[in-house]
Amino acid sequence: MIKKICADFKPSWQLYVDRGLLISVAMLLGLGLVIMMSASIAVAERKYGNIYHFFNRQLVFLVIGLVAGYLTYKIKTSFWQSFGAKLLPVVLLLLVVVLLPVIGKEVNGSHRWINLGPVSLQVSELAKLIMIMYLSGYMVRHGKNLSQSASYQPLLVPLVVLGITDGLLMLEPDFGSVVVLTATGIALLFLGGVKFSRLLILFVGAIAVMIPLVMMGYRGARVMAFLDPWAYASGKAYQTVHALMAVGDGGWFGAGLGASIQKLFYLPEAHNDFIFAVLAEEFGFIGIVFTLFLYGWLVQRAFVIGFRADREKLHYAAYLAYGIGFWIGFQVLFHIGVNLALLPPKGLTLPLISYGGSSLLITMIAMALLMRVHRDTQIARFGVSEKEAQKLKSRMTRKKNNSRGANYAR
Questions:
Q1: Cα gap 24→300, rounded to integer Å
Q2: Cα Rg for the chain, rounded, in angstroms?
Q3: What is the per-residue pLDDT across 83-105, written as a single tens digit (0 to 9) for each?
Q4: Residue 373: its pLDDT value, please?
Q5: Burial of residue 151, with CB atoms counted within 10 A of its CB: 0-12 exposed, 13-18 middle, 19 or more buried
Q6: Element (DSSP H or E) covering residue 61
Q7: How far, in Å, CA of 122 to CA of 199, rounded?
Q8: Which strands sit side by side in the sheet containing 104-107, from one edge to the other?
C-alpha cells in the first residue's frame, strides 16, 4: 500500500527516470561538444574549409542517437532478453563483411567501418553492446551451471563466442576493442558466478595469447616506443610524447578553452583518440578531475541501477546494466591511460566526448537501455501509478475502437 502511494505521489518522469544518470550523461554530452569543437577546428578548416565540419556531423549523430535512444527506451528489457541472442549472428556477419574490400572502408590501414554512403558504421562499437546483451542472456539461462558445475563445459560456449568476436576484431585490426570487450566479458562472467580460480586461468590464458599478438608488427614497435617514448619522440612515440606535452602544459587550471597548442597539427587525432589530452591542456587538472567525476558518477549509477534490478529479481536487466557500466568504465580508463602514457596507443574513443558517429550512437542506445532497466525496476517495485494506468487504459480503449472500426469497414 505504501509503495502504491509513493508511486502515485511522484510524477511519472521522476519515478521512471534516473536523474543522476540523466544529469551525468547530459553534462558529458555538453562537455564533449565544447571540447570536440575546440579540438577539431584546425583539422576541419584544413581538410574541409569549414571549422564546423566535425561539430555539425557530431550534432547530426547526437540527434540520431537521441531518437534511437528514445525508441530503445520504449522497449521493455524482456524483449532484448529474448531477442539479444538472435542479434549475435548478425553482428558476427557484419564483422566478416567489414573485412571485404568492396564494402569495408579502410582508414589508416584499418578496416573497421562499413561504408553507408554519407556515413560509416563502426561495427566494433555495435559488437560491444550486442556481446553484453548475449552474455547477459546466457548467464540468466545457465547461471546455476556456471557457478555450480564442476565441468568447464558451461563456460566454453561464451568463451568460444568471445574468442571468435575477438579474432574478427583483430583482423580489422582493432586491438583496443578486443581489450575492452575481453575485460567486460570476464567481469560479467565473474558477476554471473564463475569461480575466481577459473577466471584467473582464463585471464592468464588471455594475457598469454595477447602478448605475442601485441608484439607482432607495428604493435610491437608501439610497445617499445611506449616503454621509452622520448627515445622515439619523432617516430612511433610521436603521439604519446605530444599527449604528455599537452597534459603537462595544462597545469592546474589549463590554458583556456580554444588555447591548446598541441591540437594545431602536433597531436594526431586530437578530436578523437587523444581528445582527453586536449581537454587536459585547455582545462587543466581541475578539468581532468571534473571529467573523471562525471564518468565515475555515470558508472556508479549503472551499478546502482543493476543492483536494484537484481534485488527485484530482474536478473537479465541487472546483468545488462552491470555490463554497460563495466564497458564504459573500462573504455574510459583505457582511453585516459593511453593519453597519460600509462598504456600503449590503442585507438579508443572517449565515450560521449570524442568525435565519432558510431561511438556516440551506440553509447546513446546503451544509456537508453540503462534508463529502461531503471524504469522496469521501478515498475516491478512500485507497480504502475494511477496516471500510467489511466494512460494504458485509454490506449487499450483506442486500440479496441480502431480494431472494431477496421472490422466494420471489412
A1: 10
A2: 23
A3: 878 889 999 999 998 888 777 77
A4: 96
A5: exposed
A6: helix 53-73
A7: 30
A8: 104-107, 110-116, 119-122
Least confident of 51-55, 246-250, 362-366, 381-385: 381-385
Separation between Cα atoms, residue 317 and residue 114, nearest integer Å: 30
The b-or-e profile of 265-294 (16+ CB within 10 A means b, else e) is ebbebbbbbbbbbbbbbbbbeebbeebeeb
pLDDT of residue 211: 65
Domain ranges of the chain: 11-133+224-391
Rounded to an integer, the average pLDDT of 344-356 is 88
Angle between helices 275-311 and 315-339 (to 10 degrees): 160
Crossing angle of helices 275-311 and 238-250, rounded to 10°: 80
* DSSP state letter for 232: G
Residue pair 164/185 in contact (Cβ under 8 Å)? The answer is no
Q: Which helix (H) or strand (E) holds 26?
A: helix 19-48
Q: Binning pLDDT at 50, 70 and 90, where does residue 5 land?
A: very low
Residue whose C-alpha cell reads 573497421 in the numeric block: 112
Burial 83-97 (b: 16+ CB within 10 A, else e): ebbebbeebbebbee
CA dihedral angle for residue 112, residue 117, residue 118, residue 119, rounded to 10 degrees: -30
Maximum C-alpha span of the chain: 82
Q: Give the SS3 label for residue 127.
A: helix
Poorest-pLDDT segment among 7-16, 201-210, 249-258, 326-335? 7-16
pLDDT by residue (tens digit) across 40-76? 998 999 988 899 999 999 999 999 999 999 999 999 9
CB 121 within 8 A of CB 160: no
Cell 532484448 locates to 80
3-class DSSP assignment, residue 119: strand
